[in-house]
Amino acid sequence: ATPTARRVDRIQPSPSTAAAQRVRELKADGHEILDLTVGEPDFDTPEHIKLAAIEAIDRGETKYTPVNGTPELREAIAAKLAQRHGAHYSHARIAVGGGAKQVIFLALMATVDTGDEVIVPAPYWVSYPDMVLANDGTPVVVECGEDNGFKLTAQQLESAITARTRWLILNAPSNPTGAAYTEAELRSLADVLLAHPHVRVLTDEIYDEIWYGTGLAPTLVGVEPRLQDRVLVTNGVSKTYAMTGWRIGYGAGPADLIGAINKLQSQISSCPSSVSQAAAVAALTGKQDFIAEMVETYRGRRDELLRALDGVPGISCTTPQGGFYLFVNCTGLLGRRTPQGAEISTDEEFCRYLLESQQVAVIHGAAYGSPGHFRISFATSNAVLREAAARVARACAELS
Ligand code: PLP
C-alpha cells in the first residue's frame, strides 16, 4: 500500500507546473530556453496596487480577516459583478479565497460526492479533471471540435447530462484556446440548462478582461438571469491585474453554496491573506486604464505570432478571442521523422523534439484533453516570441 490516500494517487501534478519546473532545470543546467509555457502576465503588478498593500501593512492590517474576506473587498467584488453581469450579489453570496483555483476546488469539495459527475468540455484547463477526481467525483470530458471553435454545443451538453450530473464547468475566454461563447451560443446552452434544474454551472471567468472583441465578453448570467441561482461565477485578480502571486480569487453564487465554501475555508485557511485583500480592493476600485494598454500589448503579440506561424507546413492556428494563449493544431506533423530519424507520433513527442532541437518550451495538447495540439503562451516579450516562432517554423521544416 502507498502511504498516500487514494484521492492523491488518482491525480497528477499540474502539467503546467511540471513544464515550468522542467524549464527551470534546463536553465539551471546552462541551456538557454525560450519559455512559452508561462501561465501568468509578464507585467509587474501596478504601482498603486503595491502601494495599497504597503499602506495596509502600515495600518496594521496584518491579522485574520472574516473567513469570506473583508467587507471592503466583498463590496468591490459586488460592484464588479454588477457591472459585468448586470446582477446583484449580496455579501452572503460572495466567497473570497486564495486564488480562483482554491475557490473552484472548495466549490467541488463542498458539492461533489462519490460518483457525482462533472461535465468538463475539452480542451480544458489542466486542473479541472484532477480537482474533480481529488474530490471523489467523475469528470465527464466532452471533446469540443476545432470546427466549432473548441466550444461546447447545446446538443453535446444535452447528451452529457445524466441524473448524476452536478456541474458543468464553463471556462471562457478559455485557457488553452482563447475561445469565448457568443450570446447566441450561451442562449442555447442556457435553454438546455433550464430544462435540467439539478445541474449547476461553474463559470471560470478569470480571463474575462483579457478580451480582444468589442464591448464585454458575454456571460451566462448576463444572458440568462434566471440561472443566477444555479451559477457559481469564479474570477480573481491574478490575470487582469498581474497579481498571480498575491493569491486572491472569488466566487459568487447561491448563498447555500457560498456558505458551504466558507465553512470549508474556515477549517482550511481561516481566510485569504489580509494584505493581499487590501491590494485586491485597490485593484478592483482603482484606475483601470492600464488593462486596456495591457490588452493592446497582448493583441499585438497575438497578431504577430499568428502572422509568423501562418503558412508553416503541418501546423494551423485558431485565433484566440481572449486570454494570452495560442492553441496550435499540429496533427499535420504526426507521422513525420526528425533529422535523427525518430518518428513524431504524438503532440508530446513533437513538444519534446521542439525543446531538444530548438530550445523552445511549449505544453502538449494532451495535457488539456486535446491531443494533436500544443499551447503557446504569449505572455512574454515580442523579441522572445519572434525568435520562438522562427524556431518553431524551423523545427517543422526539418521534419520529413
Ligand atoms: N482558471 C484558469 C482557466 C486559469 O488558467 C487559471 C490560472 O492559470 C486559474 C483559473 C487560476 O487562477 P488563480 O491565480 O486565481 O488561482
UniProtKB/TrEMBL annotation:
Residues 1-19 are annotated as: Disordered. Pfam families: Aminotran_1_2 (PF00155). The keyword Transferase applies. Residues 32-391 form the Aminotransferase class I/classII large domain. Keywords: Aminotransferase, Pyridoxal phosphate, Transferase. It is an enzyme of class 2 (transferase). Its cofactor is pyridoxal 5'-phosphate. Belongs to the class-I pyridoxal-phosphate-dependent aminotransferase family. NCBIfam families: PRK06107.1 (NF004769). This is Aminotransferase. It comes from Saccharopolyspora hirsuta. The lineage of its organism: Bacteria, Bacillati, Actinomycetota, Actinomycetes, Pseudonocardiales.
